[in-house]
Amino acid sequence: MSKISVLGLGAMGSALAATLLRNGHSVTVWNRTPARAEPLAAAGARIAASPADAMADADLAILCVVDYAAARAVLEEAEGALAGRDLVNLTNGTPRDAQELADWVAAKGAAYLDGGIMAIPPMIGEAGALILYSGSTALFELHKPSLLALAEGRFLGEDPGRAALYDLALLSGMYGLFSGFLHAGALVTSSGAGMSDFLTLLLPWLEAMSRTLPDLAGKIDSGLHDRDVVSNLAMQTIALENIVRASREQDVAPDFINAMRRLAAMRVDQGHGGDDISGVIELIRREK
């Protein structure tokens, strides 16, 4: 089994280290607050004295801290031990963050793989957990058995920033869902109804609407937003305007929905009222 070091023992880092221990790996851990390492030491991990100590002891080093500034600070402390090492960075950040750190690590002579964890700590090592990876293909292939012990792994290519991009894109979809859920909840509870009862209507509706996504994705890829339109944007804009009006009548802030209403209305004003709602993407990605 590989010798693996885990640097950063927050809830996620601790879950990663514990899973590796359960899978029979020799695990070294380091955290700026040493007390967080004690439960893992009791389970068989070695506590490193410093980031350099942790890095020097590893076939593979996994870094999981709060942000890329913290990641860079940890790696700077281990700078002298980086040459020839394999590093997987599972810190959340932007594609630019990942690219800049990958360049810095490469200049120190280490191989780099960036990752985005699509799971909460209790899911690590269990079915349903997913980690997206991008960067060094060789590193991913070499350490794949160890990485797959943590979660299903999806390698997205050599661009170090791709995993961060997909991570944030998936979170965008999640937060879009949450914002719609919260707005729906505010409307329903404004009448004195309970959200739990309303959920029996909302969940099947969302499931039914999710089945339209493949068609919308095809329109986004082709740019043919006027193809086979069932509910055109002009009609949907009226619905969005009614949601905003009803929200104000119910003393509910329309902040979540107003952004979508504004973009839909703008697209209609540009002459695309007959298009599908997928056409709104042309407004938000126009800068590219």
UniProtKB/TrEMBL annotation:
Its EC number is 1.1.1.94. The keyword Zinc does not apply. InterPro entries: 6PGD_dom2, 6PGDH_NADP-bd, HIBADH-related, HIBADH-related_NP60_sf, NAD(P)-bd_dom_sf, RedAm-like_C. Residues 159-286 form the NADPH-dependent reductive aminase-like C-terminal domain. It comes from the Bacteria. It is an enzyme of class 1 (oxidoreductase). One of its GO terms (molecular function) is DNA binding. Residues 3-152 form the 6-phosphogluconate dehydrogenase NADP-binding domain. Residues 1-17 form the signal peptide. Keywords: Oxidoreductase, Signal. Pfam families: NAD_binding_2, RedAm-like_C. GO terms for cellular component: chromatin. GO terms for biological process: transcription elongation-coupled chromatin remodeling. PANTHER family: CYTOKINE-LIKE NUCLEAR FACTOR N-PAC (PTHR43580:SF2), OXIDOREDUCTASE GLYR1-RELATED (PTHR43580). This is Glycerol-3-phosphate dehydrogenase [NAD(P)+]. The lineage of its organism: Bacteria, Pseudomonadati, Pseudomonadota, Alphaproteobacteria, Hyphomicrobiales.
